[in-house]
């Protein structure tokens, strides 16, 4: 599946959205440093001044890409956490969601993951950085709650969250949604490995990680692509 490109000439926000979609794709394909207003303007048949009028600077445009991306991810996370109560189901949902991002919004996800290091301390990224931290805190809380409830073996929840993010955030370097395995099967394999490491029993792992099971269906509903 591919991300929709906003049709040119839309009455409200059309050109601005079109610029952002094109810039996002360039960042995904080339990286931020090689993406530039000139190439975006040439592809869209407009002047660079039009882009400057809408966004000001390239840094501001990237910040908006990151903010929009993380706002959607937080909304989705709160939605599936509201439907799922067991810690192992919630961990599985984060993994399934992480794979779906790369499937349903490949350009935006790759652009975010390629340039996530810019959230560390660059000016202008404060909002996106806070959103990223809020998402991380949700994952840490689920891992900590699971350990305290005896669902997971004791361990450092923050470190475990980094292990999760490390595996998911590098998917852009190798993942092909149209490849040998269905995206849901990739998510299931990641989930099985993670839950086994957290000490969850094999029968429960199989049920929670099931690529066609209730957790996967919940995430599919919550994270369905928007028109």
Structural notes for this entry:
- This protein is an all-alpha fold.
- The protein has one domain (64-222): Orthogonal Bundle (Tetracycline Repressor, domain 2), CATH 1.10.357.
- The chain has eleven helices and no strands.
- Helix 5 (87-104) crosses helix 6.
- The longest helix is centred in the N-terminal third of the chain and has 26 residues, at 58-83.
- Residues 1-12 have low confidence and may be disordered.
Q: What do the pLDDT scores average to?
A: 90
How widely separated are the two ends?
12 Å
Characterize the biggest β-sheet.
Answer: none
H and E order: HHHHHHHHHHH
Number of strands: 0
What name goes with the CATH superfamily? Tetracycline Repressor, domain 2
What is the CATH-assigned architecture? Orthogonal Bundle
β-strand percent reads under 5%
The radius of gyration over CA amounts to 19 Å
Summarize the structure.
The chain has 227 residues and is mainly alpha-helical. The protein is built from 11 helices and no strands.
Q: What keywords describe this structure?
A:
Tetracycline Repressor, domain 2; DNA-binding; HTH_TetR; transcription regulation; 227 residues; disordered N terminus; Tet_transcr_reg_TetR-rel_C_sf
């Amino acid at each position: 599946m591919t991300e929709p490109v906003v049709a040119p000439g839309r009455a409200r926000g059309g050109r601005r959205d079109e610029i952002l979609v094109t810039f996002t794709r360039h960042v995904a394909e080339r990286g931020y440093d090689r993406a530039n207003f000139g190439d975006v303007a040439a592809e869209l048949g407009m002047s660079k001044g039009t882009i400057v009028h809408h966004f000001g600077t390239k840094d501001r445009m990237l910040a908006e890409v990151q903010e929009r991306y993380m706002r959607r991810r937080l909304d989705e996370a709160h939605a599936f956490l509201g439907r799922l109560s067991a810690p192992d189901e919630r961990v599985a949902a984060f993994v399934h969601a992480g794979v779906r991002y790369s499937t349903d919004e490949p350009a935006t996800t790759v652009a975010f993951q390629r340039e996530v290091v810019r959230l560390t301390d660059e000016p202008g990224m404060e909002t996106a950085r806070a959103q990223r931290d809020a998402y991380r805190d949700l994952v840490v809380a689920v891992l900590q709650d699971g350990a305290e409830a005896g669902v997971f073996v004791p361990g450092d929840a923050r470190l475990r969250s980094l292990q999760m993010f490390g595996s998911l955030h590098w998917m852009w370097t190798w993942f092909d949604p149209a490849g040998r395995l269905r995206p849901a099967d990739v998510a299931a394999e990641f989930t099985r490995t993670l839950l086994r490491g957290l000490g969850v029993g094999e029968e429960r792992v199989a049920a929670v990680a099931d690529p066609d099971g209730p957790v996967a269906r919940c995430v599919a509903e919550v994270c369905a692509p928007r028109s």
